[in-house]
Predict the structure.
Amino acid sequence: MPTYLLKFTFLLILFHKCLCYETKVFGPGLQPVNIVMPARYFFVNFTEIDENSYSPDLAKNFAVEITGKSFKKDACRLWSNTLNRKDGTFIVRYKLYETCSELSINIYYKNKHIENSPFKFKGLIQPDQCDCPQDLQSWLKQYQCPLSYTQIVNDLKPFQHVDMKDQVAKIIDKYHNPQSTSFCHYVIKDNQIYRDCYGKHIGFNMFADNVLLSLTRKVVMPDMELVINLGDWPLLSKGTEPLPIFSWCGSTETIDIVMPTYDITESTLENMGRVTLDTLSVQGNIDRKWETKEPRAFWRGRDSRAERLKLIDIARAHPELINASLTNFFFFREKEAQYGPKLPHVSFFKFFDYKYQINIDGTVAAYRLPYLLAGGGLVLKQESPYYEHFYGQLKPYVHYVPVKRDLSDLVDQLNWVIKYDEKAHDIAKNARIFANENLLPQHIICYHAVLFNEWSKRISGEITVKEGMTHVPQTKFACHCANKENTSHEEL
């Protein structure tokens, strides 16, 4: 063999034995002093690998170790896990259970540090339970929150100089119907939370409580009052007097101020806790590549809308295109014999064994959409008057494929995505990119903070706590809220 070929062969062998992948490491979890959340997270991207070239050997040779010190000089109590997206990228999450110092994030490939690892951080790293509020404006910048959102600007446009005493009285007079509506009047005063709740079913106040408690642990919120609707349906019909009611769902026929849903908010605040379905977990628990997914649409859900029954009819007529079944009967119990039998719930992660996911409204918008977008399947979304806080940013045939409200074109749209498989795959990838840029925990916390901050600017008059309001206290937690100094990231 010629000498130059021997040298080339040697270099090729050496290339395969060494750390030969370029990597990018990014995400809010690499700013642990400034960005506090229930579970911090970051991404590791092996840039030369994609879904097609991915091999399980990558994950076998990839490892992350996160360490720190506690105030007792012991190892800091923390938990981490790695989610493998099977496309050359990993999501790393870690949760602190106490204040830590000297945090070190070590990322290995083939037992060697990847470029820039270890990531070391000076200063105190606080767990999310710490009540260590800081200046709001500085926090918004450190947390990398946008200055505003189009949806917030539009929702708050009717409100300028708002007398909340007058507005709350009107809301109570018009909407206090214990059998059909439930809502809470909140006051934030001196960064303490107080509330009065109205209605028969007020258990969902825990979701509103939790996001306000989370924010007031992180920042000194402006004094403000707000009314949060605890029901699924928005309350304020268009054409009526604008009243400042915050709701989890909006519609084209209403003018409520829209917040992120209680579902995605809970998954943000309970990340790596008791909630297992979130926009991060769904990305790391998908087994099949696009090419090996079943080329049919999948759907499971309860009977909360007539179109869901129609979907069953369509699926029975086209079993080669759709796998759809109901899991519970409540609204149409008399039709269970016709549309049953109901099937057991399926793990949400198994939805993505199929290429196509159908999103149909429930009682209002289907709150599963963020997870469908993140999961890597193509979403066929029913046209709907209902929307969540981010729907205005979605584009048909870019992030999803639209389906008429009555599902009359569902079969045609399915045949289209099957015929144009490459385009369908691109739409599915765009949806995941959208979720990663708009629907991860950092984004949900930012949206709440920006919304409430902008709302506080529109309130006129003094904010007072009405006699008899319930105080919502922070849970006691041992913390060290020292000044955060020397927080730069050292690259060794």
Notes: The domain at 20-129 is CATH 2.60.40.10 (Immunoglobulin-like). The chain has a mean pLDDT of 92. The chain is about 25% helix and 25% strand. The CA atoms of residues 267 and 484 lie 28 Å apart.
